[in-house]
Amino acid sequence: MTVNAKPEQHDFFAFLSRMRYIGRWGLMRSTVPENIQEHSLDVAIIAHALVMIRNTYYGGSLDPSRAAMYGIFHDASEIFTGDMPTPVKHFNADFKQSFHELEDRARRKLLAMLPAELAKEYEPLFFFEDQEEYARLVKAADKIAALAKCIEEGKSGNNEFRRAEAEHFEQLSASDLPEVRYFLERLLPGYRLSLDELKLG
């Protein structure tokens, strides 16, 4: 009589679900706390929108779903590293490089929680820096999501995010990506409105 072996355990998705416990803006006083799971959804939605804008108005041919998936996983390493404040992350070139290496190791640790066959399929979603066009769009989406958070805090009367808002807006306004400028000019203003002011169709 043989006893069935216990199935091998893989904790990848259980760890991903804990993104909701990793707070952002650690050095800032927030009116509404934000975690990396919420932020990642915002980035995915905006990255998808940027590709749609590029493809519709500027002759692009990228895959919006792919951009969205990159957005979903772009901060997954922070399950282990936490959300490092930008001034700390960019303290100097050596520290910045070391932190990037730590992020890579954290991604590898997460992928190791999958069966090898699945890990191979998920790996491109965690390491997409070589996909330059997508990487630039996800980075822009990340900044737009951060800008939207700053605007939200300002609407709540919190001046803590005022400088961050100005810096993010300035950086995004200088982008050479037309889809980013389109978003800033036509879609971002709605974030500044109250519910009653939003146009419903």
Write the layout of secondary structure elements.
Layout: H1 12-16, H2 36-57, H3 64-73, H4 78-81, H5 86-89, H6 93-111, H7 116-126, H8 132-155, H9 162-173, H10 178-187
Helix pairs in contact: 2-3, 2-8, 2-10, 3-8, 8-9
Architecture overview:
The chain is mainly α. The protein has one domain (23-190): Hypothetical protein af1432 (Orthogonal Bundle). The protein contains ten helices and no strands. The radius of gyration is 19 Å and the shape is globular. The mean pLDDT is 93.
Instruction: Classify the fold: give the CATH topology.
Output: Hypothetical protein af1432
Percent of residues in beta strands?
under 5%
Radius of gyration: 19 Å
Strand elements, count: 0
Instruction: State the helical fraction.
Output: 55-70%
- The backbone outline, from C-alpha atoms, is globular
Quickly give the structural class: mainly alpha
- Mean of pLDDT: 93
Q: Judging by the overall fold, what is the CATH architecture?
A: Orthogonal Bundle
- First-residue to last-residue Cα separation: 68 Å
Please mark out the parts with pLDDT under 50 across 5 or more consecutive residues, or reply none.
none
Whole-number count of domains: 1
Q: List the helices and strands in order.
A: HHHHHHHHHH
- What would CATH call the class? Mainly Alpha
Query: Could you give me the name of the CATH homologous superfamily?
Result: Hypothetical protein af1432
The number of distinct helices, counting runs of at least 4 residues, comes to 10
Main beta-sheet annotation: none
